[in-house]
Amino acid sequence: MLSRFLRPELAALPAYVPGRPAPVGPGGVSYKLSSNENPYPPLPGVLAAVEHACAGMNRYPDMGNTAVIAATAARLGVDHDQLAFGTGSSGVLYHLLQATCTAGDEVIIAWRSFEAYPIAIKLAGAVPIMVPLGPGAVHDLDAMLAAITPRTKMIILCTPNNPTGPAISHDDLVAFVETVDGRALVVVDEAYVEFADAPPRTIELIKNGTPVVSLRTFSKAYGLAGFRVGYGIADPEIAVAVRKTAIPFGVSLPAQAAVIASLEAEKELLDRVRLIVERRDVLLARLREVGHQVPDSQANFAWLPLGARTGTAVETFSAAGLMVRGYGDDGLRITVGEPEACELAVEVAATLL
């Protein structure tokens, strides 16, 4: 048996479940609302930059992501040495865990939150401490503080929280970090920050020397999910450690070109984000109108807490040509897609009652 060569931890490791492809419903209706992707196609300028970069595909990309770091640093107003790039914000988290955690360390997370957290934590040899969400599907910050032990190395906060949607305010984050008081590194996963009305000012905290790391991505608001580019903002000492653990040449040549072109076209991209936010708010209001108890979402999705009915509900959406994301016996997540997709989602959701 070749399994003797494998790490024993893998036997109990949950597998990450990606969003399933869109089914085909009546009349050929087919919408994928399961992966929180931006529904808009790439801007022409971004496509042109990628095409130009592909002409050099026989060469390795810049391993240091020099131009990407320069453009991102200028956009955020941070120093170059405060940034570390990887294959999506989840990739950067994997590198951060490798750089900080050893066997037996504890990492506190809210649950339910991003499915990749327990996997990444266990692969680093650490132990995930999963603290249930509070009423309204929000992070129970007091309970997370109470879970800190001498073995706690890191606390991950997801804001807006995936898959439920609520966000943590700046004041609440500041109070939380002050109470942690350096006992653990606070990592703020901000993959959906561009969709939030009033996100915490994490960069301000990092510049002030607060032990906080921000994780961000170009997959969601910037529409580069297929290129998988994310980054961390941190104190230079943390950022250099993340860069040390990163896979060499992890960010491809066309992906780097797409990031730079997207930052140059940021106004048009963020105009699209504003439309998605407006559509999200309409979706939340409509779901509530038909009778669902939907938590406030500051991301590009809505959460239906359906409990044990989740599996059946996912199949109901699928039969109508809509693929949504189910989460065990907790609920399902609906990505904000095209207007007609959102309207159909409300119609299907109404039948669940």
Account of the 3D structure:
The chain is an alpha/beta fold. It folds into 2 domains: 110 residues, Alpha-Beta Complex (Aspartate Aminotransferase, domain 1); 221 residues, Aspartate Aminotransferase, domain 2. The protein contains 12 helices and 12 strands. The strands form 3 sheets. A 7-stranded mixed β-sheet has the order 2-8-7-6-5-3-4, sandwiched between helices. Helix 1 packs antiparallel against helix 9 and helix 3 crosses helix 8. The longest helix is centred in the last third of the chain and has 24 residues. 46% of the residues are buried. The model has no long low-confidence stretch (mean pLDDT 96). Its EC number is 2.6.1.9. Pathway: Amino-acid biosynthesis; L-histidine biosynthesis; L-histidine from 5-phospho-alpha-D-ribose 1-diphosphate: step 7/9. This is Histidinol-phosphate aminotransferase.
Quickly describe the structure:
With 353 residues, the chain is α/β, with parallel strands linked by helices. The chain folds into 2 domains: 18-42 and 267-351, Alpha-Beta Complex (Aspartate Aminotransferase, domain 1), CATH 3.90.1150; 44-264, Aspartate Aminotransferase, domain 2.
- The CATH superfamily of the largest domain is known as Type I PLP-dependent aspartate aminotransferase-like (Major domain)
How many structurally independent domains? 2
Major β-sheet profile: 7 strands, mixed
Radius of gyration: 20 Å
How do the strands line up in the largest sheet?
2-8-7-6-5-3-4
Q: Structural class of the secondary structure composition?
A: alpha/beta
Keywords: Amino-acid biosynthesis, Aminotransferase, Histidine biosynthesis, Pyridoxal phosphate, Transferase
Subunit structure: Homodimer.
EC number: 2.6.1.9
Enzyme class: transferase
